[in-house]
């Protein structure tokens, strides 16, 4: 008899909690997928499309859906891969392409014919100009995505690496101690010196 | 007075005897001065003179932008010969914007000199503060923080204690010691001005116990007005007592909260050199154009203190101290613990140059072999900020920048005590600087990417809206055309007009044919004008009208 009571009690509890959880799942449902927002926040927002998706947000959605790997963002570099790996609890993989140096687009104003094609290509509206007027890049807003290079019919846009000036200068990471370096590099070193 | 003790610290050998033997030498005007526009914490000033201009001593040549910033003044009279990038004292060795002045040798103050205020105590406090700002005064202890900011407490903040930081920051440096021996009156006058500005209740004047000469001079010259509420305190010379947080702890036993400022606990701390600069600008109208520099170390022949104009090349300053010793190999700006090596002695003295230290190879033997951390804990025992240096080191190495901030990275004052005692010779401070820079850079990048995201999303939205509006317009037009066709009314109007025009043309033709010669020039309007429904495609009408060609 006591077995029946036990089954009834446990069954009753299970039913009650099941109802509460079911209600909560409906009542407090989250509409957007917050993972996409979190991934998007880590991407550099260059909107360059080098990941083969048409912008940072589509790439974030693809990562969240498990369609894309996390190592396809050259402007973000290895640091972004690491941050994404931490967020998604995945293994950080090496970057697919080489890390991209930070640069801004500069229009050679002597060559510009004012065709507005680059203005239409710029994903962040960082190019100023009008038809048959000279165009210029607002350097501060340029993300260095290079999307304006290709449409230019007179090839007057160049990517110029951002110069290291004194306000941007950073202390370098100190070199690790030789003992902490991987064994094979020490072996290589000793062979070289022999 | 009962003194307290801050955590950790090091007892370092006193090396100031050599540089305090001779009095402060006031250096002459060099032929060319290179004055950097960014000599302080905060944004660099913007040049307000042009190449070719003649400037007088004390004339403003760099205008500060923003609140945490300072003006830059011409240290002597002469001609501006260049405004461009030149090497400046900075650990990066990079160039920065400078104004180069060819001195005319007259060193004259023009009529741009500020009016001397002997009656400063009757002036408006706001004007007094503005005067300090106009003088381009920054903290002369070495950090070069704009002084006017520290004299302007936030609303609701009450400053009750003014601290004079006469504890020299590092061994070897004796600039404060010599200033206190030479010009105590100016320092006291500066203290009176600041005490008046901040309405403080007491002044604590800390002097290290290895500066007895300075202490004696101060005791003798203490003015009547300050007696009673200024207290001269001799503090033990333990590095880094000159750190403002450490000195406050020693003097009052109170701790400045993490991430806060001394003003949060009602205190403000200034270097004696800063007080003299404040006195100079208020009472004499002389902006900050020179400072006392300790030139010392085994690498110079005659270590001493000099008063050099801002912009004087290091080489001239070294020459004033008897020149280099034969086997010198390193020149450091700042002290042995926190200074950085410079690779060129043509770079100029700036407002932050408290010391030039020249050493020989045997004075700075290369650190022993770098070895792994053995977790001995020596670094934690000496850390004056009570941090866990080894923990910070591991986190910096692992690039775990969130954890490292939780462990108080930004409370680190980079004093170098931890690296000094490390038995594994790990360059700990370099790791902390690297981590701090990396965190700032990432924060900046994050802000930039946020702006880019906003702009991208705005653009997407705009393109969508434009397309939507276009579609709507098209739909409206289509509907209108359909409606017209259905009504048939607009059409019949048009038809009637065309009909009328045709009638007129026909009539004219007939008349012409009938008369054959008397062609009277009647300019009948073309059909388009009579048509109220066809205003839009009027451009399409023009070729038919033919009146354009």
In short:
With 194 residues, chain A is mainly alpha-helical.
Please tell me about this protein's structure.
The complex is a heterodimer of chains A (194) and B (549). Chain A has 194 residues and is mostly helical. Chain A contains 6 helices and 4 strands. Chain A has helices at 2-27, 34-42, 56-64, 77-88, 117-121, 183-193; strands spanning 103-107, 127-128, 136-137, 157-161. Chain A has a two-stranded antiparallel sheet with strand order 1-4. In chain A, strands 2-3 form a two-stranded antiparallel ribbon. Chain A starts with a helix and ends with a helix. Chain B folds into 2 domains: 18-308, Rossmann fold (3-Layer(aba) Sandwich), CATH 3.40.50; 439-548. Chain B has 15 helices and 17 strands. Chain B has helices at residues 125-134, 147-150, 175-182, 184-198, 212-221, 244-252, 272-284, 314-320, 378-382, 389-397, 401-406, 417-421, 428-487, 489-515, 538-545, and strands spanning 25-26, 32-36, 46-47, 54-55, 60-63, 72-73, 78-87, 95-103, 161-166, 202-208, 230-235, 267-270, 290-296, 304-309, 330-333, 340-342, 355-359. In chain B, the strands form 4 sheets. Chain B has a 6-stranded mixed β-sheet, with helices on both faces. In chain B, helix 4 crosses helix 7 (272-284) and helix 10 crosses helix 13. Chain B is elongated. The N and C termini of chain B lie far apart (103 Å). Mean pLDDT of chain B is 89; it is low at 522-549. The chains are: A mainly alpha (194), B alpha/beta (549). The interface between A and B is medium-sized, with 31 and 37 residues.
């Amino acid at each position: 008899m006591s077995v029946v009571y036990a089954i009834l009690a446990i069954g009753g509890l299970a039913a009650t909690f099941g109802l509460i959880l079911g209600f909560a799942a409906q009542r407090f449902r989250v509409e957007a997928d917050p993972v996409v927002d979190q991934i998007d926040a880590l991407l550099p927002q260059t909107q360059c499309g080098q990941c083969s998706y048409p912008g940072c947000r589509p790439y974030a959605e693809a990562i969240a859906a498990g369609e894309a790997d996390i190592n396809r963002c050259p402007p973000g570099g290895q640091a972004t891969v690491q941050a994404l790996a931490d967020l998604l609890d995945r293994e950080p993989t090496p970057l697919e392409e080489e890390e991209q140096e930070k640069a801004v687009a500069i229009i050679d104003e002597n060559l510009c014919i004012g065709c507005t094609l680059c203005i239409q290509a710029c994903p962040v509206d960082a190019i100023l100009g009008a038809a048959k007027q000279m165009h210029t890049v607002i350097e501060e807003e340029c993300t260095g995505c290079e999307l304006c290079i290709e449409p230019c019919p007179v090839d007057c846009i160049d990517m110029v690496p951002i110069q290291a000036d004194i306000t941007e200068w950073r202390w370098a990471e100190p070199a690790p101690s030789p003992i902490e370096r991987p064994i094979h590099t020490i072996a290589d070193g000793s062979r070289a010196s022999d | 007075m009962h003194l307290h003790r801050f955590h950790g610290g090091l007892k370092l050998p006193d090396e100031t005897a050599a540089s305090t033997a001779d009095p402060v030498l006031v250096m002459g005007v060099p032929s060319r001065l290179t004055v950097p526009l960014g000599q302080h914490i905060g944004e660099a000033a913007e040049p307000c003179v042009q190449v070719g201009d003649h400037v007088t001593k004390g004339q403003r040549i760099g205008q500060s932008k923003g609140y945490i910033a300072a003006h830059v003044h011409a240290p002597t009279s002469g001609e501006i010969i260049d405004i461009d990038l030149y090497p400046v004292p900075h650990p990066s060795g990079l160039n920065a914007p400078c104004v180069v002045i060819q001195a005319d040798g007259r060193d004259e103050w023009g009529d741009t000199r500020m009016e001397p205020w002997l009656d400063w105590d009757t002036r408006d406090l706001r004007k007094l503060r503005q005067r300090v700002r106009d003088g381009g005064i920054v903290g002369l202890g070495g950090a070069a923080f704009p002084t006017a900011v520290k004299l302007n407490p936030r609303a609701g903040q009450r400053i009750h204690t003014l601290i004079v930081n006469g504890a020299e920051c590092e061994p070897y440096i004796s600039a404060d010691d010599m200033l206190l021996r030479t010009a105590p009156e100016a320092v006291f006058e500066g203290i009176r001005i600041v005490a008046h500005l901040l309405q403080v209740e007491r002044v604590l004047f800390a002097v290290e116990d290895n500066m007895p000469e300075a202490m004696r001079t101060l005791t003798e010259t203490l003015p009547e007005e300050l007696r009673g509420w200024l207290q001269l305190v001799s503090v033990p010379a333990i590095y880094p007592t000159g750190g403002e947080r450490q000195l406050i702890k020693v003097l009052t036993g109170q701790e400045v909260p993490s991430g806060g400022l001394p003003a949060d606990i009602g205190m403000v701390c200034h270097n004696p050199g800063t007080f003299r600069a404040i006195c100079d600008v208020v009472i004499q109208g002389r902006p900050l154009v020179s400072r006392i520099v300790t030139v010392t170390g085994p690498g110079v022949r005659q270590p001493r203190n000099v008063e050099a104009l801002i912009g004087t090349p290091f080489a001239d300053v070294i020459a004033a101290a008897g020149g280099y010793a034969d086997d010198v190999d390193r020149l450091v700006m700042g002290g042995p613990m926190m200074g950085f090596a410079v690779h060129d002695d043509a770079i100029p003295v700036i407002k932050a140059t408290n010391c030039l230290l020249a050493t020989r190879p045997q004075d700075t033997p290369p650190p022993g072999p770098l070895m792994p951390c053995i977790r001995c804990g020596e670094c934690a025992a000496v850390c004056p900020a009570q941090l866990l240096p080894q923990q910070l080191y591991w986190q910096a190495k692992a690039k775990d920048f969130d954890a490292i901030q939780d462990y108080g990275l930004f409370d680190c004052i980079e004093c170098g005590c931890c690296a000094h005692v490390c038995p594994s010779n790990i360059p700990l401070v370099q790791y902390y600087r690297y981590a701090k820079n990396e965190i700032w850079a990432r924060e900046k990048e994050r802000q930039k990417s946020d702006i880019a995201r906003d702009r991208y999303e705005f653009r997407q939205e705009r393109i969508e809206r434009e397309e939507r509006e276009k579609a709507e317009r098209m739909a409206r037009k289509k509907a209108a055309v359909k409606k017209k066709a259905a009504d048939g009314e607009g059409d019949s109007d048009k038809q009637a007009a065309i009909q009328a025009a045709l009638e007129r043309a026909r009539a004219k033709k007939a008349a012409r044919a009938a008369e054959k010669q008397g062609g009277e020039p009647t300019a009948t309007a073309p059909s388009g004008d009579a048509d109220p429904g066809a205003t839009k495609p009027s451009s399409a009408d023009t070729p038919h009208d033919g009146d354009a060609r």
